[in-house]
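Me: I'm a chemist; would you kindly supply a protein sequence with its structure tokens?

Assistant:
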Amino acid sequence: MTQNNTKSYEDTFNRLVELDLFKDKSDWVSEIRDDALKSMIDLGFPVNRKGNEDWKYTDIRPIVREAYKSNLELKDPKNKLDDHLIEETINRVLVPESNNGSHMVFVDGQYSERYSSIDSTKDGSVIRHLQHEDQDDKELIHNHMSRYSDYKTNVFTAMNTAFLDQGAIVNVPDKMIVDSLVQLIFITTDNDQKSFTIPRVLIVTGRDSKISVMETYVSIGNVNHFSNAVTEIIVGPGSVLNYFKNQLYNENTYYISSTDVEVNENASFQSMNLDIGADIGRNNLNIRMIGEGASAKINGAYIVSRSQHIDNQVVIDHVVGHNDSKEIYKGILDGKSRSVFHGSIIVREKSAKVNANQVDKNLLLSDEAEADTKPAFWVYCDDVLCGHGAACGQIDEDAIFYLMSRGIPEKEARNILIRAFVSEVVDTISIESVKEHVHGLISDKLNNL
């Protein structure tokens, strides 16, 4: 790694400070921004092709070569046509019939009160903007922000924190049951300049609470954009969090996402991650099982085509025993696309009675598509039940022949088998409206392979 590849972002940071463009000017945020900037400079972006195991299969030099501007420097590019397109995009990604939950919208990195809809009588008490002035919010931010996503060791987390300014807070009080789906929507538009945005989300669930949260990342137009997102999640004791993330960016966008989760005793964390967009995409998902009786069900689906590249790095760390994790990822690859999956399950010493299972399967629709999968277990305790599996293959021609013999045309037969392959993951979603929504997104992608 080299330090000078962060120079353009260091210059951008200094320019934002000089021009007083950061909207959050609180002392604590300013201090953490300065500290994170130093970490970003010291770490440098991982562009070396040798001795760089974490990024061995994903070349980020195309990202680093671009000179992106901060969204805070951009003049308002939106016109009446853009307003119409923004509203149309929001309606497309909103989950219908989800008990009319609240949604918070960010356009080109900026929170938009105009496009957001927060029902204060239903769930408005749990969703707020990062710059909310409430004293309880300030205490929450101090107690949790940057406590789980380590900007001292991850350069992209350091960059996100260095430019920390706007974002979303989801805070569920003890014993609160939120029946509606809360949606956080991050939209990038066709700016006349290439920009980077840094979506930031903090989710904290109190004891014996329950909520469902969806993050959606989507583009309007085809302009190249760099999105560097960080989400920190604390699943409180006895609480239930259903967490969904849909990445639908255009195929010129570069996308890096870091999600860090802590699951406390008797808590349940269920996630579904869908990637169908971006040119280069990388998901870092780190889950720490810190409480006995906790469970984590981690599901993911990725559908890539043409020259798209998607990289999923998933680490589940069983810090204590007597908890469970189950992980299923499935990918569909076409054209010259490539996927990377590296799943690590860690079972610490004295963490007995852990039940952990990990599966990654890939369906290759093209001879030129490539899937690299690397499951790994680090088990330091004997009294556990752990297993993993990985597979890559093409469509079963015998199954196609069988369907065709029943009068189904070949193209339709192939589509049936492709959808059946990914349905195993999507059908784990317990909320029917969300399940139908995700199936619809996948169908749209498959129809455009």
Summary: The mean pLDDT is 91. The chain has two domains: 4-278, 395-449. The first strand starts at residue 69 and ends at 70.
